[in-house]
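During the no-cost extension, the postdoctoral fellow (Dr. R.K.) reprocessed legacy sequence entries with the updated structure-token encoder. One reprocessed record is reproduced below for audit purposes.
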Amino acid sequence: MNRPQVRRRFSILWWWQLVLVVLPVLIINSLFESSREPGVLAMPFFIAGMLSMFVSLPLFNAYKHALIATGKARDTEVEPAAWQTLGEARRKACWGAGLPAWIAAAAVFTSLEAVPLILLTVSSLVILYLYRIPRQLG
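Re-encoded structure tokens follow.
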């Protein structure tokens, strides 16, 4: 695979990951919105969602190092292996980036209000945005 094809594949996978992060929150919230009663577990779920953002720190560090290594491996014989390593690091990091939104989706059942749901989902989106492949690498 050449570099533009790999970048295109990474772009498509990023959009799929975006859908996998946002869609559960939207679907679960729309289906179970009417059964809102004050929940005791709403605040612990929100705190767990906020703390889950810290899962991304070591994953981002691994992604950053793989990204730098891929940039250094451009136009060499180890470039395909570097892209593969970058893809593996990015896949793990994207799953970690989705944790706050998925915890928000589970927190719908604890009657978590709309603002915390939005905050957790947007935090996942912001973290996920960090994992876009930079133009300089193409």
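The chain has one domain: 3-137. The chain has a mean pLDDT of 90. The remaining legacy entries will be reprocessed before the final report is submitted.
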